[in-house]
User: Which sequence fits this backbone?
């Protein structure tokens, strides 16, 4: 005799598995490696320092 299954639970389990697979694909496609993140952070900090050095000082006193 066939095993009785709950279709609602099967649908939800399949939806979760599909969502996890899609998330894994997106992480590999759009994610950055640790070295790339640190390099981007260093570059951002350097650009921020350069920009701060070029701001005009005003005397409002």
Assistant:
């Amino acid at each position: 005799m066939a095993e009785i299954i709950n279709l609602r639970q099967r649908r939800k389990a399949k939806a979760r598995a599909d969502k996890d697979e899609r998330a894994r694909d997106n992480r590999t496609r759009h994610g950055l490696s640790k070295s790339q993140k640190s390099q981007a952070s260093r570059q951002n900090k350097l650009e921020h320092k350069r920009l701060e050095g070029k701001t005009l000082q005003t005397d409002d006193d």
About this structure: DSSP finds two helices and no strands in the chain. Residues 7-53 form one domain.
